[in-house]
Design goal:
It is a single chain. The protein has 2 domains: 100 residues, Helix-hairpin-Helix base-excision DNA repair enzymes (C-terminal) (Endonuclease Iii, domain 2, Orthogonal Bundle); 100 residues, Hypothetical protein, domain 2 (Endonuclease III, domain 1), CATH 1.10.340. 61% of the residues lie in helices and 0% in strands. It has 12 helices and no strands. Helix 9 packs across helix 11. The longest helix is centred in the middle third of the chain and has 19 residues.
């Protein structure tokens, strides 16, 4: 199957079966989503959603977080992965927002990447979710699922995967495609023992078709 045909069928499947897909992180404003996405690195959304309510009660905005003590932030985020680094990054992010952007999150990916604690994946998430920009964030789920299905080929890192994906996904679908692939990887195409029997993509998934061919030999 040609790659453009595989993309067409994957997108058609998700449009028909999952017309609504959005982040599972809970937030009320751009600041809260920024904090949540930074915390979500190598951490489950479920865990982040447990951490953020008391966090936002103590630090409801960038101004309050910018003046925080690292130890106080660490105490609130210590149950997530890499809490030391995340505590420092969160404070640095808030200081940058206050000092360089008047406390208002910028909307462009390159500008977002200038803020401490915000890498390309986080910048793409914020640009697409908050500002509806045609950005597609590649996390571990997206990277794995795209490679298994055959949407990406020999991508060595998230940036290469992102470039391959946006070359075939229309701008109007890039934001939701990010959520489609994440949720598919979280609940169906899991890292170990993917649930291929339950997958609606198996008829045009390289991983499944290759395994089936191997079993039949």
């Amino acid at each position: 199957m040609r790659k453009d045909e595989r993309f067409r069928r994957v997108l058609e499947y998700f449009l028909e079966n999952h017309p609504v897909a959005e982040t599972e992180l809970r937030y009320k404003d751009p600041f809260e989503l920024t904090v949540a996405v930074i915390l979500s690195a190598q951490c489950t959304d479920k865990r982040v959603n447990m951490i953020t309510p008391p966090f936002f009660k103590k630090f409801p905005d960038a101004g309050s977080l910018a003046g925080a003590d690292v130890a106080d932030v660490f105490e609130l985020v210590k149950s997530c992965s890499y809490p030391n680094n995340k505590a420092k990054n969160l404070i640095a992010m808030a200081k940058s927002l206050i000092e360089n952007y008047g406390g208002i999150l910028p909307s462009d990916v390159p500008e977002l990447e200038k803020i401490p604690g915000i890498g390309r994946k986080t910048a793409n998430v914020l640009a697409s979710v908050i500002f509806n920009k045609p950005a597609l964030a590649v996390d571990t789920h997206v990277f794995r699922v795209a490679a298994r299905i055959g949407l990406t080929t020999r991508a060595k890192n998230p940036l290469q995967a992102e470039m391959q994906l946006i070359a075939h996904i229309p701008e109007s679908l890039r934001s939701i495609a990010h959520h489609w692939l994440i949720l598919h990887g979280r609940y169906i195409c899991v890292a170990r023992n993917p649930k291929c029997a339950e997958c609606g993509l198996k008829d045009f998934c390289k991983y499944y078709l290759t395994n089936q061919a191997t079993k039949s030999c």
